[in-house]
Amino acid sequence: MYRWLRRLISGPAAPARQAPTTHVPPAAPMPDSAPGPGPAAPAVPAAAPAPTAAAAMPAADARKTRPPVPFELLDLAGTAWNAWLFGRADEGGLELNAHEAQVLETLAAILSSQQSGAALVRRMPGLIPQLLQSLRSETFSGSALSRTISSDVVLVAAVIRLANSCYQTTGASVTSVEQAVILIGQEGLRQLITTVAFRPIIDVHSGYYVRRLAPILWEHSERCAVAARKMAPALGIEPFDAFLAALLQNVGLTVALRSMDQVTKGEPQLGSGVFWAQLGRDTRRLSVSIAREWNFPESVVRALDEQGGMRKGAVMSPLGRLLMLVDYLGKLRVLVEQGVLEDGDARLFAGLPGDAAECYALLEGTRSA
Length: 369
Prior knowledge:
Elements (H helix, E strand, L loop, with lengths): L1 H8 L49 H5 L7 H15 L12 H15 L14 H9 L6 H8 L3 H14 L10 H22 L9 H24 L7 H10 L2 H14 L8 H21 L4 H8 L12 H20 L18 H7 L7
Helix pairs in contact: 3-14, 4-11, 4-12, 5-8, 6-8, 7-8, 9-10, 9-11, 9-14, 10-13, 10-14, 11-12, 12-13, 13-14
Protein name: HDOD domain-containing protein
InterPro entries: HDOD, RNase_Y/CdgJ
Pfam family, one: HDOD
């Protein structure tokens, strides 16, 4: 699936951006978690432990491979996100209730089965490949493309909404698909159609957790994907890989929402701190499994897997670091907009890399459709 998407969607690489001129002043730098080099090795090499990858690097390079967000900030944002997402004033206890245990058992069964969670994710409709194939041509027909899009009500709404949001300053309203196609352009349509293809299906028959949480998780992923794609070129990262990694980061949790509804019969009975911690671990593994089954590149799979923790001396890939940063800042954006956290709190940016302010600005109302 990845090769197919990459071949149809990728365009020319964006030029490297200049470094931002303003950023949130960093607080004291993060402590060096990697162990320093040990004493000289004795005559028998096997007697000395091998240094970690981070320890073997020069200090400047090692900093570029460590997690970009301090553990304290990840924990703070994660706790606030959990409480708001599940509508809990506290962590709801430190023990699993019966419903939470059953949800985790269901996830464990999916992870241990021969069939991965990819079977539970909406696959691309037949219309999407047809549209993306048309967009590969530099001489595509706007009228023909408009007729194809008009056969899918979801695409019609997305195309017109994007056109109106891009050109709202003109005072005119876009009402036809053909006009919207001309205004958005070829590259805009590529990104929009890809996004629509991955968007989860939510209907009136969905349960409580799917109805409430799936739209929130999708908007967070969508914002992060667009921001990551814009940040990627300056970091030497393939923009489309960054886009896909961020778009896929919540797919495991979105799949788990159906299990939550089946177990709880639609009643909000989940959300303890210990449940969220185990749920995050298992749904992350599910996202990694889905990425592997879809034959996404190893860089995307590794980046998703690297979100699993802050091990001492851990080395993160450039894409893994970018994904962690946009995920953290994306959650901050949503929580600030919901009034859960205070905007402008410098403590929330302490120890972040210098481009965090630019990334945070990109996440403000960033949507691809």
